[in-house]
Amino acid sequence: MAKTDYPTQSTSHIGRIRHRRNGAKPAKWATNAATKSPTVANTVEPASRPAECEANAVRKIVRLVARTGCRTHILHVSSGLSVDVLRRAKAEGLPVSAETCPHYLTLDCDHIPDNATAFKCCPPIRDLHEQDALWAGLADGTLDGVVTDHSPASADMKAGTLATAWGGVSSLQVGFRAVLTGAMRRGLSLTDVVRWMSCNTARLVGLDDRGDITPVLRADLAIIRPYERFVVDATALESRNPICACDGMTLNGVVTRTFVAGRDALSGVREGNLIVRP
Ligand SMILES: [Zn+2]
Q1: In angstroms, what is the span from residue 27 Cα to ligand 1's centroid?
Q2: Which of 38, 158, 160, 275 is 20 to 30 A removed from 203 (C-alpha atoms)?
Q3: CA–CA gap between residue 221 and residue 213 (Å, rounded)
Q4: Which DSSP letter does residue 33 get?
Q5: Is the dihedral of CA 110, 115, 119, 122 positive or negative?
């Protein structure tokens, strides 16, 4: 499969944040790996962007960090090889931070239905072995956080085949609870998930007025029942587009109330318009 069969969507790169989808050249790997694959629909995406390419890109960045001392953040880590590179970089005291996303932690490429474009993203969703390595990276602090990388693509953009559909996973409303479910299954706790998805992320981007439950800080809060389970129904989500890679999954965490800057997010909100400005 040629590289040109997989259009890369444009992405803005802000400052020193490095988006690893522009990593090492995947074309040759893709040709070899994809032609060997029996089920193209399921395997072509990971085969087109192998974990080794991702790790090479991260290695290259880490070398530049060592040379320049430039504070650097790696987005969307999807592979254990990259976690290994980052673990060593952090042990050397280099100023790098890194994150992964709910889909890399909770979905795996061997259980994706054929041609299910809801799962197409860059880097691709890899196998359970890689997933375990990402959880280990979170548990030991190599990965600092989990961010949504929510992609609100319309049904039109997600239509077609894996080769042509827009890349990106839509999961904003359920991502936190997908990670919570995975964490609880692995003996990790709600506190860990809050650290990865709230405290650390707020600190990373300099939102000093939130990220902890403390007097004087801004109260952006969700009250949730972590042990109560629900089934994700993509058509019932608040998203404009009824597409979600978690559709049909049973997840932990029912939200009972949400506060934005201390105010009940749903009070005075018109039906069908959840936008509130505190
Ligand atoms: Zn992204």
Answers
A1: 21
A2: 275
A3: 8
A4: H
A5: positive
pLDDT in tens, the chain (278 residues): 333 322 333 332 222 344 444 443 433 333 333 333 333 344 446 677 899 999 999 999 999 999 999 999 999 999 999 999 999 999 999 999 999 999 999 999 999 988 899 999 999 999 999 999 999 999 999 999 999 999 988 889 999 988 899 999 998 999 999 999 999 999 999 999 999 999 999 999 999 999 999 999 999 999 999 999 999 999 999 887 889 999 999 999 999 999 988 888 877 665 555 655 44
Cα of 149 from ligand 1 centre, angstroms: 5
Cα(76) to centroid(ligand 1), Å: 7
| 72 Cα distance to chain centroid | 18
**SS3 assignment, position 232:** coil
Domain extents for the chain? 3-214
Superfamily of segment(s) 3-214? Metal-dependent hydrolases (3.20.20.140)
Tokens 């050397």 locate to: 92
